[in-house]
Amino acid sequence: MAFTLAEMAERTTNPLEKGVIKLYGESSDILAGLPFTSIAGNTITKNRELTPSGVGTRTVNAEYDNATSTQEKITQQLIMMGGKALVDRYIVKTSGPDSNPVAEEIAAKVKASSMLFNKLFVKGNDSTDANAFDGLENRLAGDQVVDCGSSAGGDTLTLDHLDELIDTVGSPSHLVMNAWTRRKVNQLMRSANQAFEYVKNDFGKLVPYYGDIPIAVVGVDHEWNEIMDFDEADSNGDAATCTSIYAVRYGSDGVEGIQHSAPIVDDQGFVGNNRQIIVDWFVNYLINTPKSAARLQGIKKA
Asked: Per 3-state DSSP, what percentage of the chain is helix, strand, and coil (rounded to 5)?
């Protein structure tokens, strides 16, 4: 059974783990809504439907068409994501009552991990980094990639392009984009005498909605580099001056996070001169049906 981070936080009785789980959701618009299923072991293999099973009508004494759906096997392995929080004994012992350096260092690790997950979710490439998983950019192909146009250097985003992306998924639960593109969509909506609606998510953050679809904004990664910068090829595969928007449908029949368990917080006490806490999360995600995610590529900064 899949649980969101907000639901996971409610289910744990460990105050430290509860705070860490909530902080993951507060730090990432993607993680705030993505449901996670816990799996046994470190790998999962599933059949994903490529074409639907044949159905139809028949006449009396005739047989139904026995066409069956076609399937493909998908396999994903959990990766290890997290860090080691170290705080010198001197800092721990001499900090005043209004300071908690251990909690601050744990929070810094969790926020950085959330930013790393954002990067992997969109841009991950396990062929260049054996410790990573493939992101949407590397998983989506064929009909699930929509061109913003065919101009060299990219094309200007329009609401028609965005609606085409949405229709490619059908009923997406989120749109994923960078902050500049979110501002561009807002500008286009104002020009059409429309406006964003803002709704609080499970972690109390106000999230902009395009129609009834929340927008997950992706900023910088754990090294403060823009994740969805204007450094992608255009629709012709040339000039690296473009960015993309993704539409995803979260759920067991769509895009679903997988984990071994909820994020782990292992307080190992003092090791040498440092208070040591390991923040660990064994994670990945699945695209359970091909049409549950799509990419609009070739958007130029105009």
From this structure: 30, 35, 40
Mean pLDDT for the chain? Answer: 94
Burial class (CB in 10 A: 0-12, 13-18, 19+), 136: buried
d(CA 258, CA 256): 7
d(CA 162, CA 289): 21
Rounded Cα gap, residues 8 and 17, in angstroms: 10
Phi/psi for 72 (5° steps) reads -135, 150
123 pLDDT higher than 90? yes
| CA 191 to mean position of chain CA atoms | 30
Start-to-end CA distance of the chain, whole Å, equals 43
- 1-302 CATH pick, 3.40.50, 3.90.1690, 2.60.40, 1.20.1270: 3.90.1690
Check whether 153 has a pLDDT greater than 90.
yes
pLDDT tens figures, 201-218: 999 999 999 999 999 999
Q: 3-state DSSP call for residue 164? A: helix
Q: In the predicted model, is pLDDT for residue 97 greater than 90?
A: no
